[in-house]
Amino acid sequence: MKAITIRQQGDQGFLQYEEVPDPNVGPSDVLIKVRAASVNRGDLSLGYAAGSGGPSAGAPIIGWDVAGDIAETGSDATKLKVGQRVVARLVSGGYAELAAAPEDTVVPLPDDLDYDEGASVPVAFLTAWVALFDTAKLTEGETALVQAAGSGVGIAGIQIARRVAGARVFTTAGTDDKVAMAAKLGADVAINYETHDFLAEVLDLTQGEGVHVVLDGVGGEVFARSQMALAEGGRLVSVGRSSGDTPVVDTELAKRKSQTVVTGWRLRDERTHDQAAVDLERIIGLIAERTLKTVVDRVFPLSEAAEAHRYLASRAQFGKVVLRP
Question: Which domain covers residue 87, as residue numbers?
């Protein structure tokens, strides 16, 4: 099969499109013919960023999110059938024509969702879902600030907070076009952070109280100001640092205002893959009934994965970047 591999230390140019052996299929596994695989920001730093020390041992093929068709089932895999359309969050190996996964981690893909839509769901929507509901415990009638509206997690977070939790949602983006798109997704207030101070805007629009919950994947100064935007007893969950800057908690502020601030959050620490599959099936159902929606910004051939990574790194997108084998 063809796949994207990491063969040496370097930047995105060191992603190699080459022939590799097909994955092994264990008794409880299924083999997926990959029709689409989405790119996550975490993929940009997995083992090949300059100075990282090279690829992780035993995991030369990256990629977590795939959608496709069941091509083969293991002897103990009985729930899914050959030819069935599915979506999965993998441990690794998604940037390939074929991917193997335990059957219990794979979810059926409804016929009215295309493969690009399916592949763009798992990591982004699961991150927003678990962080908002389980970690931050967002409830109906509260206010939420979702940073980086154009990111996969941002797009998911806006909709989950507004359409599922029933919260009033603030969000941020870097252009007026992205602000308009965020509003269409359901954000009550979308702020262009290039022309407005989001902290001042949030405090003004909440009569100085601040928001109950913040979902941040940016880090650095955005994280610091997000904590300042938290209300008394507010909860902030840091799910990434796309800025490259580590989030630093103001412990004095957190103590004084009884804030809960979570850093170092990782989906794999919150859910096993089979547990996440239960959440993923529910999310896929909400997308199929159009309560939630995915946004695919651009599609690249799998062979152009390096260019897809550069595009995502530029932050020009609004939505997911997808690879097609």
Answer: 2-121+294-324
